[in-house]
Amino acid sequence: MLAFIIRRLLGAIPVVVLVALIIFCLLYFAPGDPATIIAGDLATPEEIDRIRVALGLDQPFHVRLGIFLLNLVKGDLGTSIFSNLPVTHLIAQRLEPTFSLGVLTVLLSVVVAVPLGALAAWRARRAVDRLALVVSVLGFSVPVFVVGYLLIWVFAIKLAWFPVQGYTPLSHGVGPWLSNLVLPTLSLGMVYIALITRITRAGVLEVLSQDYIRTARAKGMGDRVIIWRHALRNAAVPIATVVGIGVALLLGGVVVTETVFAIPGVGRLLVDAILRRDYPIIQGVILLLAGIYIIVNLCVDISYAIFDPRIRY
Amino acid sequence: MEQTVLSVRNLTTSFARDGLWQPVVRNLSFDIRPRETLAIVGESGSGKSVTALSIMRLLPPTNSRIAGSINLMGRDLLRLPDEEMRRVRGNEVAMIFQEPMTSLNPVLPVGFQIVEALMLHRGLTRVEAEAETVRLFDKVRIPAAKSRLGEYPHRFSGGMRQRVMIAMALACKPKLLIADEPTTALDVTIQAQTLELIKTLQAEEGMSVLFITHDMGVVAEIADRMLVMYHGDVVETGETAEVFRNPCKPYTRALLSAVPQLGSMTGRERPMRFPVVDIKTGEADTPVETPDTIAQADRPVLEVRGLTTRFDIRSGILRKPAGCVHAVENVSFSVQPGETLSLVGESGCGKSTTGRSILRLIEPRAGTILVEGTNILSSSARALSEARKKMQMIFQDPFASLNPRIKVGNAIAEPFLVNRMGTRAQARDKVADLLVRVGLKPEMASRYPHEFSGGQRQRICIARALAVEPKLIIADEAVSALDVSIKAQVVNLMLDLQASLGLAYLFISHDMAVVERLSHRVAVMYLGEMVEIGPRAAVFGNPQHPYTKRLLSAVPVPDPARRRMARSISNAEIKSPVRRLDYIPPVREYREVSAGHLVQSWGEEWAA
């Protein structure tokens, strides 16, 4: 197992390098010149040139690429063109809200969807199953921002149970932190609840027709034990796969949710950076997302081995 | 007289099909007395497994309906509330299933799967239940019981898994054990061990056993009384010895005479058709020996020399090979046109890998494979596809080896068209001709595989193999999954085709009785090596190698009078051909016993 993790981490290095290379090229060839933007509308061509030299933008492609990669190895993602602060610092500031939102959403989705899906499979084609289907269809079809504004209108404005927008750091206490995150988590989580419920239902339904489930019933095991102990773990591998994909897709959803609920997270940072053509920040955030995705994938693969003892790496 | 343990009266089980209730078991009545073994015998679709599941009430309640009464020690199981029925299952009535490979939960340790039953029914604590499980493992002769408790099912062989299932069934000392084809999926030597074990444990525990099987050999071996079923109806019931000696009903006679019997070919040289019995009258025809089909003077259609196939086992950070499966090790033989050579042996002996290596479906490591004189291991892709036309393969599972979404006519025509052997119109004629040859009708070409029975599908697979006019057919367990009567028909078809087309067969099988019937020569494989090869009459009549002897003696004899009493149970598992990297296969010598009968000289390990 340890050998597998090491091998996978080593295997991730070329992936990261490739991602870095692609991002660099993308921004290198992208239209628009950061120097012009920094200099402002009234700048003379000389001023723009000076800024360009200062930023190293006058260097040829390979030199700029070399500097970029070298800095990357040192953990230096460059300096924001707009605010002049290090990119690593800017991202670090924004990590907590995004992580809080992401982790809470995944937790909520799994905690709600897996039991719901298992229940739907157990009571297939009965009322509970149909209800789960309705929930899923709603989750799939209503966009995140619609759910978000609806939740704000009902729970924040009408009932005033939760704040409308904003974010309170965890250091200010779990209560305030959580109350700010309930609505964003719910609206972001709807689609994952829908997805994971369907996958769990399909997986458990398939497992329930297996020979070893018949064996368990022949032993006199009750339905609850059969679902939770015998069936669910066998259905876990596809569920873990979907949760992993979900985390990747979630990163996209975070951008919208953070905008709707005015949460100062990485998603907002990225949106702002794109609007300002703040290239180092864009590079940094995309690299961060790629890194997260690689780690999530690794975790999913490790979870396979935990759920299914037949899988050995 | 003691009270009966189980008394079934007028059991009728129906399934809902297309909105109608169709009975699959009709008016079944029988009794099982204490310590008695009753065997229910029948072919697929006879309703024997449904009977077992009805007793356990394990059929899905939404689309099945059970009527009649099932009395267990005075209680009608069909009238019990669900909760109480749960306490009967696994506690008073326990069940073992056919497929040991899929009947255990793959993600739970084997010990735990027994522990949970003990905790549920006998109210033991975790620690007590674990101690009891160790005792049960010892009882079913699982070696090193204590250390294997925490292991997962995939670490156990098929025979060992079936022992785990038996231990699980015995856990709560049930009054009745229902065994649904418990040995069908096992190798013969393992089957013999398992039957022996069930018999011994039955005597020790004083259980009654309801044994469900299609195998007359197994019935003769284990049952006190038997009940023959056909299409949901009882055909005949009685004492096992009596039914075997004097079957009253035509169907029973047909079933009994279709059973391949080892030793029935003594004194004959050539293969022989199975007798064909009319199910209505029970009259059998007298089969004759097949004509001499072997072209001895011709060049062999297939010559294999020194064939070696190995698979690496990799592990560690750099995936270095850590061991090696010696699946096929230095195997040599040849097949003449019109000849049948059988490769026999148990799971893992390399017989299927040999077949696949010859077609290069698996790439061999070394050796030469001459197909009508051309070495296909060193030939170009073009020459290989030319050679593959001369050799075709049929597989074990006729359900899995036909694409369910392709009409059978197109499936048969495909190899013909892919090899550009003619136009579409010619292919159509060819398909019609082939379907007739394999005993089907030309108009069946436009149907899909699911509309055919298992035997018919295997005929379709044979027709597909014949489409490219091969010289040799490699049949990998081609009749193993079929019912006895169907098996006899397909073997007869293969013999007829051999006579009319001069086909050669490489027949890969673990079924010694069928092999005896249709082979000219037999090769016995063990752990990837060939231990004995020779004319069928010589190998079966005068087996030399200890492994051949063991294999032959393990085959159940369908004759209750010749029941082999209480052999000592050997717990020998089939050894594994996984070797260390530095393993150098020993140089083997072969001794010629009689003309063409070669035996590998064996070493110390067979001394006992």
UniProtKB/TrEMBL annotation, chain A:
Major location category of this protein: membrane
Transport is among the record's keywords: yes
Stored PANTHER family: DIPEPTIDE TRANSPORT SYSTEM PERMEASE PROTEIN DPPB-RELATED
CDD domains: TM_PBP2
Gene Ontology CC terms: plasma membrane
Gene3D superfamilies referenced in this protein's UniProt entry, alphabetically: MetI-like
Any GO MF annotation of the entry: dipeptide transmembrane transporter activity
Protein family (similarity comment): Belongs to the binding-protein-dependent transport system permease family.
Subcellular location: Cell membrane
Keywords: Cell membrane, Membrane, Transmembrane, Transmembrane helix, Transport
Bilayer-spanning residue ranges: 9-30, 99-119, 131-157, 177-195, 236-261, 281-307
Keyword check for 4Fe-4S: no
Domain of life, per lineage: Bacteria
Leader sequence segment: none
Domain ABC transmembrane type-1: 95-300
Name of this chain's protein: ABC transporter permease
Membrane topology: Multi-pass membrane protein
From TrEMBL, chain B:
Reactions that this protein is recorded to catalyse: glutathione(out) + ATP + H2O = glutathione(in) + ADP + phosphate + H(+)
Keywords associated with the record: ATP-binding, Cell inner membrane, Cell membrane, Hydrolase, Membrane, Nucleotide-binding, Repeat, Translocase, Transport
SMART domains cross-referenced by the UniProt entry: AAA
UniProt signal peptide: none
A cellular component term, taken from the record's GO annotations: plasma membrane
Protein name: Glutathione import ATP-binding protein GsiA
PROSITE patterns: ABC_TRANSPORTER_1, ABC_TRANSPORTER_2
Membership in a protein family: Belongs to the ABC transporter superfamily. Glutathione importer (TC 3.A.1.5.11) family.
Keyword Transmembrane carried by entry: no
Entry's EC annotation: 7.4.2.10
Self-association state and partner proteins as the record states: The complex is composed of two ATP-binding proteins (GsiA), two transmembrane proteins (GsiC and GsiD) and a solute-binding protein (GsiB).
Domain spans labelled ABC transporter: 6-256, 313-552
GO biological process: peptide transport; transmembrane transport
Localization per record: Cell inner membrane
Single annotated GO MF: ATP hydrolysis activity
Broad EC category: translocase
Task of the protein: Part of the ABC transporter complex GsiABCD involved in glutathione import. Responsible for energy coupling to the transport system.
Top-rank lineage group of the source organism: Bacteria
Membrane topology: Peripheral membrane protein
